[in-house]
Amino acid sequence: MPELPEVEALAEFLREHAVGRAIAGVDVVAFQALKTVDPPVTALGGLTLTGAGRHGKFLDLDCDGLHLVTHLARGGWLRWRDDLTGAKPGRSKTLAVRVRLSPAEDGRAPGFELTEAGTQKRLAVYVARDPDEVPGIANLGPDPLADDFTVETLASIVSGSRTQIKGLLRDQKVIAGIGNAYSDEVLHVARMSPFKVAATLTDEQVAALHTAIVTTLRDAVGRARGLAAEDLKSEKKSGLRVHGRTGEACGVCGDTIREVSFADSALQYCPTCQTGGRPLADRRLSRLLK
User: Fold this and answer.
1) Which residues form the FPG-type domain (predicted)?
2) What per-residue confidence (pLDDT) applies to 284?
3) What is the pLDDT, as a whole number, of residue 90?
4) Which residue stretches of the chain have pLDDT < 50?
5) Which of 90, 109, 138 delimits the end of a domain?
6) Are the C-beta atoms of 1 and 124 separated by less than 8 Å?
7) Structural contact between residues 125 and 131, judged by C-beta atoms closer than 8 angstroms
8) Domain tally, the chain
9) Which of 29, 86, 123, 135 would be a feasible disulfide site paired with 76, CB 3.0-4.6 Å?
C-alpha cells in the first residue's frame, strides 16, 4: 500500500511532469472507483492541472479549482505514460482510470493511469470543489511532517489512549499518512513493542517515538525524491528495515526478524531491539500448530 512517502513522491513527480498541462480527457474504466457524481468527471476536460499535493495518503490534483483526489488503497498505483496517443479504455483487470493530458511539443500525448491489482477493489477517485469534501480527508489527523506536529502534539495523542501503539500509528484519524509498513519501521527505530499500550509511554519514550516518526518518514521521502513513478515501489521495499523481512537478520542487532499475522495483514519486528528478546504471541500461528 502506498503510504505518505510514496504519495508525496508521486505528487512531486506530477508537479514536474504534469502541472501546467491541460486535461484532454478522463476515461473511467472501473466505475466503482469513482465515488462522486457532482461535479461530474467530465468537468475536468479542458481544465489545466495547476497543482499536485497530498493529504495523508490521498493524492490531490488541483485542476483550475476542481480537485481530482485519489486514494490508492492497498493495491492501487499511478502509472505514468509518455504517450497515450490512440489509447483506448477497453477492458483491463487492473486499469481503473486514465487521465489524458494535452500533447507535448513533440506531438506525444502524455498522461497517467490509476491501476489496482488484486480482487479487493478499494481504489477511490473523487472529483470535488474542495478536498475537505472528501470524507477521508475531512477526518484526517495531523500530518507527521508538518511543522506543528511536535512532541507535545504526540504526547496529547497518546495520553489516555488504551490502544496498542501499532494500531494508533495506523489510525488515519489520529495521525495521517502512516500505514502498516512504516508503522513497523517507526517502532523498530524507536525500539518499541508494537503491542505497547499508548498511554503507558513515558515522556522519554514519547520523545523517542516522535523522533522515529519524523526521521523515518523524512528519510523515506528523501530516498524517493526524483525517482520515476514506476521505481517507487522497489525503492520502498529495498529501504525497509523490518517490514516484509520475516526470517532475515536484523540490521541493527543480528537477531531474526519475526512476524505476527492477523486476518488480513501482518506486522514484523525484532525481538532484541523491541521486546526485550521475547517473541510476541502469534495467535493465528498458535491455532495452526494445535
Assistant:
1) 241-275
2) 56
3) 61
4) 285-290
5) 138
6) no
7) no
8) 2
9) 123
Tell me whether residue 97 is in a domain.
yes
Predicted confidence (pLDDT) per residue in 48-94, tens digit: 999 999 999 999 999 999 999 999 999 999 999 999 987 776 667 89
Q: Is residue 145 part of a domain?
A: no
Is the separation of the CB atoms in 181 and 147 below 8 Å? Answer: no
Please tell me whether the overall predicted TM-score, pTM, comes out greater than 0.85 for this model.
yes
Q: Does residue 101 sit in the same domain as residue 164?
A: no
Residues 6 or more apart in contact with residue 172 via CB below 8 angstroms: 56, 57, 136, 139, 140, 141
pLDDT of residue 227: 85
Domain boundary (116, 138, 160) is at: 138
